[in-house]
Every structure is written in C-alpha cells, then in structure tokens.
Design a protein that fits this description.
two-stranded antiparallel ribbon, single chain, hydrolase, Peptidase_aspartic_dom_sf, 3 helices
Length: 130
C-alpha cells in the first residue's frame, strides 16, 4: 500500500467492505498518535452501515490541544479493510469529513491488529493485503 504525503500528513486509500457492499476511501489519515480509528458516518452509510443507537454509544474523540468532538462508537460484526477481515471491531463513526476533511483516520487499534509496517522513506506500508 502506498502513502501519499498531503500537507505534511500521511494519507492512504482503503477499500472498505461490509457484507456485499464496498467503497473506496481515498483520503484516509494514517495516524500513529491516535488510539482508535474513526470513519466518516456518511461514507460508511453508503455501504449500509447506519449508526446503531441500541448497541453503540456516544463518546468523545480528543485531538491535539484537548479539543473534542462527539462521535458514535459501535462494534461492527464483520468488516473488511482492503483484504483483511476484522470480526467484532469497535469503530468510532462521526462527521470527520466535514470537520477535518478526511474519509477516515486509521489509528493504532487497526495498525497493531494488522501488524502494519510503515516505511516513510519508501512511502509504503507492508503487512496489509491490498
């Protein structure tokens, strides 16, 4: 997987699939300083992932300087990120595209589960199937 540096930030493209529906998220921030991954609510709604108000919960996500935004955290029974399947993955969903301009933010929860190896010299990621 390739990394593109955009405004000094590492950006990747990911294919997300839930069931038989998929979408390409082309503007995903790779953030090793973020504990939890978050995806834009509207982007995942396109492939049939609505907010589940009975099984999830509202939580605050915090950024640099202590600023916080509300998002919704819920467990996804099965989700594919590129070709890697996650079962019972807890994700945060929120309006991050309108706030920050990203389709999603990949944090350490996913980075560590996949075992990503990030090579900033070559601008490549290994350890994640395409």
């Amino acid at each position: 997987m390739n990394i593109i540096i955009k405004d000094g930030l590492p950006i990747v493209a990911l294919k997300i699939r839930i069931g038989h529906q998929s979408t390409l998220l082309s503007n995903v921030l790779l953030d090793t300083g973020c504990a939890a991954s978050v995806f834009d609510t509207d982007e995942l709604k396109k492939i049939g992932l609505p907010l589940d108000y009975t099984a999830g919960q509202a939580v605050r996500m915090y950024g640099i300087g202590g600023q916080s935004e509300w998002c919704y955290e819920q467990t996804i029974p099965s989700i594919f990120i590129n070709m890697h399947e996650f079962k019972e993955l807890k994700l945060q969903l929120g309006p991050i595209k309108s706030i920050y301009g990203f389709d999603g933010i990949i944090g350490n929860d996913i980075i560590m589960k996949i075992g990503m190896v990030i090579d900033f010299r070559q601008l490549k990621i290994s350890g994640i199937p395409s």
